[in-house]
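Work Package 4 report. The design task specified in the project plan requires that, given a folded chain encoded as structure tokens, an amino acid be chosen for each position. We show below one input record used in the internal validation round.
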């Protein structure tokens, strides 16, 4: 049986305020997820796109119109991010897709190191 250690903290990554979750599973690469909040679809897409290829990502869209919620759902499906709508109650429209942690790109390794440094600073 593997031990799972999960930490959630608010931080700024890649110029965006996020709620970051780091899930450490014994003997494996950490699974990192970020949630970013936006008032409109355009800003939200810009913010969540900064994490493409680095981690699981979710956009929390605050009080969208029906049209914006539907458009955000299309974008989430196309660009591969999770979508949560917060209009007095939080509803998950689409979960974030799984991320391949085996990606050894240097930029992703630096991103993971930065997240872990921010986690240490938040603890």
């Amino acid at each position: 049986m593997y031990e799972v250690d999960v930490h959630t903290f608010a931080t700024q990554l890649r110029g965006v305020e996020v709620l970051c979750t780091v899930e450490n599973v014994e003997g494996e690469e950490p699974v990192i997820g970020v949630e970013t909040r936006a008032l409109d679809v355009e800003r939200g897409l810009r913010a969540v796109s900064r994490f493409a290829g680095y981690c699981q990502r979710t956009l929390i869209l605050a009080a969208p119109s029906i049209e914006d919620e539907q458009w955000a759902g299309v974008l989430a499906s196309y660009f591969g991010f999770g979508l949560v709508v917060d209009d007095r109650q939080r509803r998950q429209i689409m979960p974030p897709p799984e991320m391949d942690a085996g990606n050894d790109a240097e930029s992703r390794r630096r991103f993971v190191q930065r997240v872990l440094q921010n986690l240490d600073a938040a603890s």
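The longest strand covers residues 4-13. Validation will be extended to a larger panel in the next phase.
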